Amino acid sequence: MASVQFEGVVKRFGAVTVVDRLDLEVHDGEFLVVVGPSGCGKSTLLRLLAGLESPDEGRISIGGRIVNDLAPRDRDIAMVFQSYALYPHLTVRRNLAFGLEMRRVPRAEIAARVGRAALLLGLEELLERRPAQLSGGQRQRVAVGRAIVREPSVFLFDEPLSNLDASLRVQMRSDLSALQRRLATTAVYVTHDQVEAMTMGDRVAVLDGGRLQQVAPPQEIYDRPANLFVARFIGTPKMNLLPVTLAEDGACLRAEDRLLSLPARFTGHSLPALGPPGRALVLGFRPEAATVVSAVSAVSAAPGERSATLRVEVDFLEHLGHETLVHASYGGERVIAKVAPRQAPAAGEKVDLALDMEAIHLFDPQTALRIAE
Fold first, then answer.
1. Digit-coded pLDDT (tens) for 68-85
2. What is the mean pLDDT of the chain?
3. If we measure between CA atoms, which residue out of 119, 118, 78 comes closest to residue 99?
4. Is 168 left (phi over 0), alpha (psi -120 to 50) or beta?
5. Which residues pair with residue 255 across a beta bridge?
6. Coil, strand, or helix at residue 97?
7. pLDDT exceeding 90 applies to what percent of the chain?
8. Pick from 219, 350, 236, 333: which is nearest to 283 by CA?
9. To 5 degrees, how large is the angle CA 95–CA 97–CA 103?
């Protein structure tokens, strides 16, 4: 096992900076998931760690040893690719053994390692088959097994589940997580799928534009996003974000014709003021923090009244069986609420959404950073 460290790492392709001053540590035995949109630099990060690319600036170390100038074969890593990269003419047994044979590992040791990997991954009955005779999930297990037999210090996974169908992805997520815990080997797993990131990682590193936006345990990423990008990217559906201003008393937010009372965690006497009256802020709340409380009657509430509700017009409903997503409009912005199927309003209806103000977030629109309570 080994820790991994990126210190001020920069990688450019021509005039484009793909990884920008990256500082990141992966703890010994940790399963770190790197997530972000296409082109954010996550695959380049993995290739830098594997030695398939060289950094233009900064240092990369594995187990305390700087590896900038080491060849991939000397880094004690094993990589699982998106495409499986199996040899089609070799049996599963030979695919598992091939890398060890190239390293001239003794035959008895090869047989022992292949046997352990096959048992661990349920491949015993498939050892004499060729890749064309395997399902997608079986091929993926062989690709993982080929990495396991290497017994590396660090596993690298480059979107290994993206070629599988939905049900297989769910199963393989569970299998890979359990396998990594059993082996207790450091793992860096790259994906664009936030569900994979949230369900598999001990910690999640969110990248955008080659820069690290936040690294934290999955629940902390969800509950306390560091900035507007993380708030938008993590969560299905994504967080609702609305422009608001700070009211004159400093204890309320002005949203259209409503005043939303701020919870004490933002207004306590020991906390710094949020700013001058009229300061622009971004209000964030998850769909589960908004509840449909009533249909609006012909008699509207008085403008400027203090409440914890927003008046919205329902655009359409997304029925998911166990819950319904209410997509609605508020002041030109789209908001989403989660409701029980039998509590869903009708499309075109005007309703009040009650907000759980204890669950809201505030962001600075200038810096995009989350405002700490």
1. 999 998 999 999 888 888
2. 90
3. 78
4. alpha
5. 258
6. helix
7. 68
8. 333
9. 125
Residue 172: enclosing H or E segment and its boundaries? helix 166-183
Pairing of strands 203-208, 186-191: unpaired
Q: Look up tokens 């240092």; give the residue.
A: 59
Q: Can you read off the two tokens belonging to residue 334?
A: 């789209």
Side-chain-side CA neighbours of residue 67 (13 Å): 25
Tens-place pLDDT, residues 122-177: 899 999 999 999 988 899 889 999 999 998 999 999 988 887 788 888 888 888 88
Structure tokens at 39: 């082109």
Give the model confidence (pLDDT) of 237-289 as tens digits.
999 999 999 998 888 999 987 899 898 888 765 555 688 888 999 999 999 99
Neighbour-count burial for 147-164, b at 16+ CB within 10 Å, e otherwise: bbbbebbbbbbbbbbeeb
- CB within 8 A of 94, min separation 6: which ones? 87
Burial class (CB in 10 A: 0-12, 13-18, 19+), 303: exposed
Q: How many CA atoms lie within 13 A of 88 on its CB side?
A: 2
The answer to whether 268 and 262 are in contact (CB under 8 A) is: no
C-alpha distances in Å from residue 137, one per residue of 43, 50, 158, 290, 363: 22, 24, 16, 39, 42
Which tokens hold the place of 47? 């290739």
130: number of Cβ within 10 Å: 16
b/e map 32-59, b = 16+ CB within 10 Å: bbbbbeeebbbbbbbbbbbbebebeebe
Write phi, then psi, for 235 (nearest 5 degrees): 120, 135
Question: pLDDT tens digits for 42-64?
Answer: 999 999 999 999 999 999 999 99
Contact 179, 120 (CB under 8 A): yes
How far does Cα 181 stand from its chain's mean position? 19
